[in-house]
Specification:
The protein has helices at 17-26, 37-40, 48-56, 74-83, 125-128, 130-138, 157-175, 180-183, and strands at 4-8, 32-36, 60-66, 101-107, 142-143, 147-149. The protein is of the alpha/beta class. Strands 1, 2, 3, 4, 5 and 6 form a 6-stranded parallel sheet that branches. The two termini are 31 Å apart. Mean pLDDT is 92; it is low at 197-201.
């Protein structure tokens, strides 16, 4: 079974109803390490050696965060800048992460309809995530489609429960070794038929 590391970054986690539900569903799964970056590094003084060790111990890396100004909260960017070092994660002999899978888990206040060429935000979530995808590729990792929870401000309790179940099933599939080839073509991990409870149309 693949070991999954969830790198969670939310500066206002205590007030996020949606992320609380998602995290509660998966954080105690066997084989899952839930790592809250703001909790561990409130001063942003990231322990690079510790973080590298965590990465080496896991097969699947998850960047779980809200979409802040079309990107991630600052501590996750700090983590990427400091931990994914030249000659370790990329560059000459920088193959420590080669072959690992990585994906983004995104929560956003805007609906899926506003994240497209015709919507208010002009681009899809996948397009905004290109820097993360390229970071993964530069490090020799396989970047999978993101798992997204959109329109968070308007979610009914039943819808939120549905998303939480989807997230749990997605983590289970990753632990079972699902590959990019088996995923086929999908914009979002939520679109997988295996996550048959999907509320996203």
């Amino acid at each position: 079974m693949a070991e999954v590391l969830i790198l969670f970054a939310h500066p206002k986690f205590e007030s996020s109803r949606v992320n609380k539900a998602l995290v509660e569903k998966i954080k105690k799964r066997p084989g899952v390490t839930f790592h809250d970056l703001y909790e561990h590094y409130p001063d942003f003084n990231i322990d690079i050696i510790k973080e590298k060790k965590l990465l080496l111990e896991h097969d699947v890396i998850v960047w779980h965060h809200p979409l802040y100004w079309y990107s991630c909260p600052p501590i996750l960017k700090q983590w990427i800048d400091l931990v994914l070092e030249y000659k370790w994660a990329y560059g000459p002999d920088g193959n420590a992460l080669k072959g690992k899978q990585v994906l983004s888990v995104i929560t956003a206040g805007g609906s899926r309809a506003v994240y497209c060429a015709e919507g208010n935000n002009n681009y899809s979530v996948n397009e905004f995530m290109r820097p993360f995808e390229q970071t993964a590729r530069l490090c020799g990792m396989t970047y999978l489609p993101p798992f997204t929870v959109m329109g968070t401000h308007l979610l009914a309790e039943e819808e939120l429960q549905n998303y939480s179940e989807q997230y749990d099933k997605a983590i289970s599939l990753l632990q079972q070794g699902i590959t990019a080839q088996k995923l086929g073509r999908c914009d979002y991990l939520n679109d997988l038929k295996q996550l048959h409870n999907s509320i996203i149309k």
